[in-house]
């Protein structure tokens, strides 16, 4: 069983920055692929970014160049640094873990465990 707990969400003005954190349990955290997803009101959940065990990264086109995903295996934590935030980034952000990744994936079904989510609101 892996538990994921997100933090760092909040209210920010457009153009501002936030850093989300996701603390994980699990003995083999360093081998997990980790992803961030988001769900805006009235919309389906969508992929944001993923990071593999080697540190390779993958971003959705909508956040590429503005968001940075990183991980600290010693702290069993994955981060999402969000810069140049836009009102359309408003959503609940979820982190997810894939325990036995083959490749970095943007597909929700590939991820085995999910956090409870943290709200990010960007005002215009």
Summarize the structure.
By secondary structure, the chain is mostly beta strands.
Order of helices and strands: EEEEEEEEEEE
Distance between the termini: 40 Å
Structural class: mainly beta
Radius of gyration from CA coordinates: 13 Å
Mean pLDDT: 96
Low-pLDDT ranges: none
Biggest sheet layout: 7 strands, mixed
Classify the helix fraction into a percent range: under 10%
Strand content: over 45%
The rough form would be described as: globular
Number of separate helices: 0
Strand element count: 11
Folded structure, characterized:
- This protein has 124 residues and is mostly beta strands.
- It is built from no helices and eleven strands.
- It starts with a strand and ends with a strand.
Which features does this protein show?
124 residues, mainly beta, four-stranded antiparallel beta sheet, 0% helix, 48% strand, globular
Topology of this structure?
Blueprint: E1 4-7, E2 10-13, E3 18-24, E4 33-39, E5 46-51, E6 57-59, E7 67-72, E8 77-82, E9 91-98, E10 113-114, E11 118-123
Parallel strand pairs: 2-11
Antiparallel strand pairs: 1-3, 3-8, 4-5, 4-9, 5-6, 7-8, 9-10, 9-11
């Amino acid at each position: 069983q892996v538990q994921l707990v997100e933090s760092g969400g909040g209210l920010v003005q457009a153009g501002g920055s936030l850093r989300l954190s996701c603390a994980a349990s699990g003995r083999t955290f360093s081998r997990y692929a980790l992803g961030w997803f988001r769900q805006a009101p009235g919309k389906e959940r969508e992929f944001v970014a993923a990071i593999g065990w080697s540190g390779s990264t993958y971003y959705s086109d909508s956040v590429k160049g503005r968001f940075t995903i990183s991980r600290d295996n010693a702290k069993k934590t994955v981060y999402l640094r969000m810069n140049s935030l836009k009102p359309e980034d408003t959503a609940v952000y979820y982190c997810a873990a894939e325990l036995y990744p083959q490749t970095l994936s943007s597909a929700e079904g590939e991820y085995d465990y999910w956090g409870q989510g943290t709200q990010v609101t960007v005002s215009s």
